[in-house]
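Worked example 2:
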Amino acid sequence: MGLQQFEERLERLVEGTLAKPFRSNLQPVEIGRRLTREMDLHRRVGVRGLIAPNAFVVTLSPADVDRFSSFIDALSRELSDAAREHAKVEGYLFVGPVEVEIFEGSKLKAGRFTVEAEVREDADGGFLAELVLTDGRRVQIGAEPLVIGRLPECGVVLADSNVSRRHAELRRDGDSVVLTDLGSTNGTRVNGAPIRERVLSSGDEVSVGSTKLIFEMT
């Protein structure tokens, strides 16, 4: 399912004038397939389950780097999303943020590419916990508490008049992440229910003011 969604998004990304060059040459989805295959090949057994690679280096030929140049950053993001979707389907865990770097290999011929994958543990160790913002950006929840609010010094700054200056806080507690309302004016909700403090589960929807955020943990 993840790769199908990836392919559909890439088709929309390259439609129009960029679509024709992909008909007979390297297709972006081929890179996605190779990346997920590397995840399967290099997974390993961890304390909490199967751990999959989370750091990838994709090397393309100069010709393909040139062809993809107008959307190389978008391609990197889509490949990262494909890795996350594959991990969900297969039940894999990550021990650090998913990162996909794309480089040029001067000796590679057009249509040829390599994908290197490794397990790269985050400095905080243990497990990966992230807050997905409304624009798709991800903010990692590390050793220090992550505060959500309107103040510039907050870890997640929201331009929402219904959000308090220091609205809520996320902090690690052992193998869990706890969400605490910091006495906000309009309250904090998890999956629609008001909370003062709650241990979060992956996929929970966190509502602060008029803004909805998604908590993910692997």
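Confidence is low (pLDDT under 50) at residues 16-20. The longest strand covers residues 211-217.
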